[in-house]
Amino acid sequence: MVIAVRTLRLLFAAFGAAAVAQAAADSTGSLVNVFSYFTIESNLLAIVALAVGGAMAPRGPGWAWFRGAATFCMLVTGIVYAALLANAEVGLVSPWVDPALHQVLPAVMVVDWICFPPWPARTARPALAWLAFPLVYLAYSLSRGAAVDWYPYPFLDPRHPGGYGRVAVYCVVLALVMAALALGVAARGRLRSATARGRPRESPVRPG
Asked: How far is residue 118's CA from residue 194's CA, in Å, rounded to a whole number?
């Protein structure tokens, strides 16, 4: 069972790497733009988490936190895509890349987290630090967008009617949703860590 899980992680890591590489190859614009999508950045985190988890299955609070962060970012990617971007142009050409990055890999990360959670049963507070990544990403996207006149997503583009006020509303709503998701991911992992006795999983760890 453990060998099968680790093999699947490696296969999905390779699948994710192929999808990201194809997205970059399909791009007709700047590669900087390609890697400025939250989708691409979160998938890169997922690829690392799956590859390392498949190759070594490390244990420890740092790894638990990183794997949770990757799962959280991928869950955000999947939900935001379904809610706001399913019919929007997100710069992906090859038809298989879109579902791979926005649906398949987010689902893989969530299922892996639920079935084989490393999160301790004691606290979920460290999970709130996962919010730092999307907040830094937001600052980067808005500042770079103002400099180069390009924004990765329509809801971050102040050139649309409503300007920065509209963007601010989206950001506040997304921040609240993401905080809830971070706590939910951590809580679900903690619950499984506490109850899934006797099943193959990474050992529970204590937050550092």
From this structure: 10
Gap between the Cα atoms of 152 and 44, Å rounded: 17
pLDDT score of 59:
81
Residue bearing the bigger pLDDT, 78 or 197: 78
- Cα distances (angstroms) measured from residue 202 to each of 3, 72, 126, 128: 13, 18, 18, 22
- Whole-prediction pTM: 0.85
Quick one: which of 44, 206, 42, 196 has its CA closest to 126? 206
For the range 158-161, what are the long-range contacts, defined as Cβ-Cβ under 8 Å and sequence gap of 24 or more?
A: none
> Would you call 143 helix, strand, or coil by DSSP?
helix
Distance CA 192, CA 151 (A): 39
Tell me the HSE value of 143 on the side-chain side, using a 13 A CA sphere: 6
Does residue 99 or residue 120 have the better pLDDT? 99
CA distance 132 to 165: 22
Maximum distance among all alpha carbons in the chain?
A: 55
CA distances to 22, 36, 64, 138 from 78, in Å: 19, 17, 21, 17
Place of tokens 């869950």: 75
With left for phi above 0 and alpha for psi between -120 and 50, is residue 27 left, alpha or beta? beta
Residue with tokens 């190859």: 25
Q: How confident is the model at residue 86 (pLDDT cuts 50, 70, 90)?
A: confident
CA pair distance 92, 97, nearest whole angstrom: 7
Mean pLDDT of 77-87: 89
